[in-house]
Automatic annotation (TrEMBL):
<dbReference type="InterPro" id="IPR011230">
    <property type="entry name" value="PAP14/16/28/29"/>
</dbReference>
<dbReference type="InterPro" id="IPR029052">
    <property type="entry name" value="Metallo-depent_PP-like"/>
</dbReference>
<dbReference type="Pfam" id="PF00149">
    <property type="entry name" value="Metallophos"/>
</dbReference>
<feature type="domain" description="Calcineurin-like phosphoesterase">
    <location>
        <begin position="14"/>
        <end position="208"/>
    </location>
</feature>
<dbReference type="InterPro" id="IPR004843">
    <property type="entry name" value="Calcineurin-like_PHP"/>
</dbReference>
<protein>
    <submittedName>
        <fullName>Metallophosphoesterase family protein</fullName>
    </submittedName>
</protein>
């Protein structure tokens, strides 16, 4: 049985987010160097949990998808640090291993803290973890959701990427209600992790003050808005969301009290300009409805203050 996630004696709980590591060839020098960087970050930060926010592997064309996944999670597994995964669009592109089989492989690892899927909920790898206080009561919650792969309506020109489905939103609301009731009617301070950004990520960049960079052409959000953000606002528990997917984006901004955050790509960002890889670090404090976050870059530098971006509005397109 796995140990319950708990706040430390000093009242903190630290998470390292790895984004888009996309393991595809364990012999490649780039992946060897990336694994070394990941190890250095974890040994330096000493987190209580590691979260991979999708595209853990680039599975398309691989003949041994399972080994790619093992390679991707080897560092926290070897360091005996609890870890969890949500899947992205590149994780299940191979014909020889399904998303369900990948999730079963995740569950089989000793230090994976993922949970089996709830019944009758879309996607693979939807679960919630609680962080307990010194009295062994749940004091914070972490939601993990499968944001899917590619738009099932692409043939009708409704975007390219998938979206969080209504059954998943209903599942989240049910979990939130239960945790709130157990906490005397007070919503637990919570975070949510998934791969593909919500449409609201484009909204905060265009219309709010944000902090960080948008090196990609935009936010590759789905064209369909199923209302997950509205559900989080209504439930009042989620303080921040964390995604990957867009390798050149690392910004965050606040909308209706929720901080929408990108990680920092852990693999080369495929850009034609410098953009150092690394990880996002998130720290919760027991009994506090807030969190701190910073970037830990490949060269060992810590970036606590990201540059401000003033809203520029949105240009109309044909």
């Amino acid at each position: 049985m796995k140990r319950q996630l708990r706040f430390r004696e000093d009242g903190t709980f630290k998470i390292v987010q790895f984004a888009d590591v996309e393991f595809s060839n364990s012999q490649a020098e780039e992946e060897i160097n990336m694994s070394a960087m990941m190890r250095h970050i974890l040994e330096s930060e000493k987190p209580d949990l590691v979260v991979y926010t999708g595209d853990v592997i680039a599975s398309g064309g691989s003949t041994d998808v399972a080994q790619l996944f093992r390679n991707a999670v080897a560092v926290p597994e070897e360091l005996e640090i609890p870890w969890a995964v949500v899947f992205g669009n590149h994780d299940s592109e191979a014909a020889n291993m399904t998303r369900e089989q990948l999730h079963a492989l995740q569950l089989a690892h000793r230090f994976s803290y993922a949970k089996p899927d709830p019944p009758l909920v879309d996607g693979v790898g939807n679960y919630v973890l609680t962080i307990h206080d010194k009295h062994n009561d749940p004091a914070a919650a972490l939601y993990f959701l499968d944001s899917g792969s590619y738009s099932p309506l692409e043939y009708s020109r409704l975007g390219f990427y998938d979206w969080i489905r209504r059954s998943q939103i209903n599942w989240y609301v049910d979990q939130s209600y239960q945790l709130t009731a157990q906490n005397g009617g007070q919503p637990l301070p919570s975070l949510a992790f998934f791969h593909i950004p919500l449409p609201e990520y484009n909204d905060i960049w265009d219309f709010s003050v944000c902090y960080g960079q948008r090196q990609d052409y935009g936010c590759s959000a789905p064209w369909i808005n199923t209302g997950f953000f509205a559900a989080m606002v209504e439930m009042g528990d989620v303080m921040g969301t964390f995604v990957g997917h867009d390798h050149g984006n690392d910004f965050w901004g606040t909308l209706h009290g929720i901080r929408l955050c990108y990680g920092r790509t852990t693999r080369n960002a495929y850009l034609d300009r410098p953009f150092m890889t690394g990880a996002r670090v998130i720290q919760l404090s027991e009994g506090v409805r807030a969190f701190d976050t910073w970037l830990h870059l490949a060269d060992g530098s810590i970036l606590r203050e990201q540059p401000a971006h003033m809203p520029e509005g949105r240009k109309l397109t044909n």
